[in-house]
User: What shape does this take?
Amino acid sequence: MKELRESLEHHHGEGCCRTVDYDGLKSLAEMTEHVHSLVDPSPIILVGFSMGGWLAQVAAAGKQDSIVGVILVSSWTHAPPEYLDIVRQVHDRIASGEPFSNLRESVAMGFAEESRREELADRWLEMVQRVGPDTFINQTRAILADPHVDEHARRLAIPVLSLIGDQDQLIPPRFQREATECMPDCTATVIKDCGHNLPWEQPGPCNAAVEKWLSGLSDSDCVYRAIPDWSCCAF
Assistant: This one.
């Protein structure tokens, strides 16, 4: 989410964003505990992309005294079975020793703009290779063990923004829309001509939607804690 982080820092000051690193953590419970350990009394907005949004909903539900908002990007509340099938297949392939490069072609087809597919697939490959297979495997196992976070989402009494790509093939828009319906105060914004990775594919409209939503919040002086870029973008 480099583009979104740069936009927030441009509008709200350098250092307003902090990234949560959860390498080595193997379950949703461990990841949530880690996020909570980093939360201080200052108001914080969690930003989560895909799997990061799955984690952000759980973390925010348990710490609403300090976490005053959540931004979900291409995320879910009740994971579609087709998505879990993909997660399971990719987990098994990487766990068996296959290189990430074998997934590149499939990942490229998930980007909406055909002329940029090769460029964005290269960026994806560089990112997951930097992260490494161990962290990737831990993430996918964590999703498969606790795929649904409906119960936590219903407890969110804080504002939530959900950004949805209209051509998302990994988590289709209708599933993301259904997820927002269980949250008491959720604004859903659909970004046109975009697949799963909104911050990479349509950074301008994505950033504008975030700034518009933030302008309506009472807590304007917040620290934005971002779940890492590579969360579940890996497939």
Remarks:
- The longest helix spans residues 81-95.
- Confidence is low (pLDDT under 50) at residues 228-235.
- Residues 26 and 139 are 7 Å apart (CA to CA).
